[in-house]
Design goal:
Order of helices and strands: EHHEHEEHEE
Strand order of the largest sheet: 1-3
Shape: globular
Number of helices: 4
Helix content: 25-40%
Largest sheet: 2 strands, antiparallel
Radius of gyration: 14 Å
Oligomer: single chain
Length: 122
């Protein structure tokens, strides 16, 4: 999850549909909250419903957010809860280096992450 103040990054991610090597550090810095789990568990979090078209905000707020979905194969060291900052930034760089596909939600209200999903701070 990234804050609405990162419109330029959101625009580039949408244009390419993939993380590019140059996005790693920027996405790391922009990320506020992370969810890690199996694809089947993602639907159970309630986060998937925020990717449905039409869920975006009608009136923008500085507190709005974007959800960025980055599927990775297997466990990715550095994304586990409590990982050190250097491990975390290395993980973002690794997945960006693979040019992993991404999906970005519409601009959402801040309550998109107040649904009890097991998110943790970057």
């Amino acid at each position: 999850m990234i804050g609405a103040g990162h419109e330029a990054l959101v625009r580039r991610l949408r244009e390419t549909g993939r993380l590019q090597r140059t996005h790693g550090d920027e996405l790391y810095k922009a990320t506020m909250w992370i969810w890690v789990g199996e694809p089947g568990d993602f639907a159970a979090t309630g986060l998937a419903e925020w990717f449905v078209p039409g869920r975006g905000v009608s009136e923008e707020s500085e507190y709005d957010v974007y959800l960025v979905k980055v599927p990775v194969e297997g466990r990715e060291p550095g994304f586990e809860r409590g990982a050190a900052s250097l491990q975390r930034v290395d993980a973002f760089r690794r997945i960006a280096g693979r040019e992993t596909r991404v999906e970005v939600s519409e601009r959402l209200p801040s309550d998109a992450y107040k649904n009890g999903a097991s998110l943790y701070p970057r």
